[in-house]
Design goal:
Length: 245
């Protein structure tokens, strides 16, 4: 459209503004900002962009959680474990797990020793907490038995052995179940010493009594755990597993 003079152009512009002013005023259903000419319950572009960023961030978080769960090595039997303590001991341990690993930095966290009777829930509550913490804080937590850990070294799976050694939190189960050869004891001592020096907390699980566990570790490692103010919990009582009928 061509205009003959500036006056005619000015009139046309004024007309356009009047038409805009006549459009209904609608608020964004998310942020409440007022826009003209939009349909009811519309979402403004700013809110759409924010929602997109939130979805992308949640997708990244979900991917990270799933990756950490896949790497955690939690046994299939415990992969659906719920952090719902069933006994008084489990309740006390659960509270300490939360206090120790969520209310302070990992460098300030203590090692934990769970020892005592077979079938009293030591492994279950530890794996349940690992799952909860991965979902809540996306920490690198790895579970492994002493036998499987040393088998990695024996089979020359050195990188995987190192991955367990360097995990932010290591759950080491079935400690002292077998008599160790000299090379096994050396590698176990080196791994635990490395974690001690790097201030990486470890959860120790054993069916040994406390004094037996100390003798198994040896004085040097036992003294380091005491220096780190290791927290000890004894699990006693009857097995929580169903009996054979």
């Amino acid at each position: 459209m061509l205009f003959r003079d500036s006056k005619e152009l000015s009139v046309e512009i004024s007309k356009i503004f009047r038409e805009i002013d006549s459009l209904p005023k609608i608020n964004c259903s998310k942020c409440g900002a007022t826009y003209r000419g939009e349909e009811k319950n519309f979402v403004c572009s700013n809110c759409k962009e924010q929602e997109k960023q939130k979805r992308e961030e949640q997708n990244r978080k979900n991917y990270q959680i799933q990756t950490l769960l896949n790497l955690s090595n939690i046994p299939i039997r415990y992969e659906d474990a719920k952090f719902e303590p069933k006994t008084e001991t489990q309740q006390i341990v659960s509270r300490y797990f939360m206090e120790n690993f969520t209310q302070k930095s990992l460098k300030q966290s203590t090692d934990i020793l769970l020892f005592g009777s077979i079938g009293t829930g030591k492994t279950y509550i530890s794996c349940a907490f690992a799952i909860k913490l991965i979902n809540q804080k996306q920490n690198s937590i790895r579970y492994i038995t002493e036998y499987d850990l040393l088998s990695l070294y024996f089979e020359k799976e050195y990188q995987e052995f190192k991955n367990f050694r360097d995990a932010q939190i290591l759950i080491l189960d079935e400690i002292g179940k077998r008599v160790l050869a000299d090379w096994q004891r050396i590698q176990l001592e080196e791994l635990l010493s490395s974690r001690y020096n790097d201030m990486l907390p470890t959860v120790y699980i054993t069916n040994l009594e406390q004094n037996e566990f100390r003798r198994f570790l040896g004085n040097r490692l036992a003294d380091r755990l005491r220096e780190n103010q290791i927290k000890r919990f004894v699990f006693d009582g009857e097995s929580l597993r169903g009996g054979i009928s």
